[in-house]
Amino acid sequence: MADIGTDHGFLPLYCLQEGLVTRAVLSDVNEGPLKRARETMEGSQIAPERYDLRLGSGLSVLKRGEVTTAVIAGMGGELIASILAEDPAVTDSVKRFVLQPRSRSGQLRSWLWENGWAVRKESFAKERGRLCQILCVEKGVQTPYVYPDIPESEDPLMLEFLDREIVNIRIITENLRRSNDPNDLAAAEAFVRKTATLEKRREELWRNSFS
C-alpha cells in the first residue's frame, strides 16, 4: 500500500503491524512530515525492507503497478481529484483507493464517476467532533448519486451526518429567502427539495436501525 501525504506515518505502521499489507510506501510533499514518518517507522519493530519513505508530490512517487491500494486522506476533495488526474497511467494501475476528503466530497465523487471509478463502500470516522467521510473506490461504472455531496452509506454515523446537513441547509435556505434576487429564491427552493430528500433518507435509516 501507499500512504500519500503520510504525515506521521501511523496508518502504514498499523497496516504493517496488523499484517494487512506486506509492504508500504510512505510519501509526503514536505520534508518535515516525512521526517516524522521516518521516526515513527524507525521506532517500531518493522524491518526496514518492508517500507520505503519517499519525498514527492501526489502519485509521482509511485511506479505503475507498484501498489495495490493507495490512501489519500486529510485533503480537500478538489486536491485529491487533481492528484488522481495528474498521471492517469499510474492512477489506473492502482486497484483500490481509500480516500478521505476533508471538504468538497461532492466534487471528488463527480470526478470519480466521470473517470471510471466506482464507490464500493462509504463510511465515517469521528475525530474531535468532526465527521470524516471515507470512500473506498475501485475501477467500475457507477450511477451518480442524486446529490454528489451526500454519501450513500449505512454507517451508524450517517444519521448524525444527515442531522448536521439538514440543519446547515435550513440555515442557508432561510438566508436565501431573505433575498429579492430571483436566482437566490430559486436556489432556496432547490435546497427545500434537497432537505426533503435528506429527511426521507434519515427516516429510512432510523427505521432500519430498529428493525
Explain briefly what this protein structure is.
With 211 residues, the protein is α/β, with parallel strands linked by helices. Helix content is 45%, strand content 24%.
Give an overview of the whole structure.
This protein is α/β, with parallel strands linked by helices and 211 residues long. It folds into two domains: 138 residues, Vaccinia Virus protein VP39 (Rossmann fold, 3-Layer(aba) Sandwich), CATH 3.40.50; 52 residues. It is 45% helix and 24% strand. The chain has seven helices and seven strands; from the N terminus they run βαβαββααβαββαα. The protein has a seven-stranded mixed beta sheet with strand order 3-2-1-4-5-7-6, sandwiched between helices. Helix 3 runs parallel beside helix 5. The protein is elongated and about 60 Å long. The two termini are 38 Å apart.
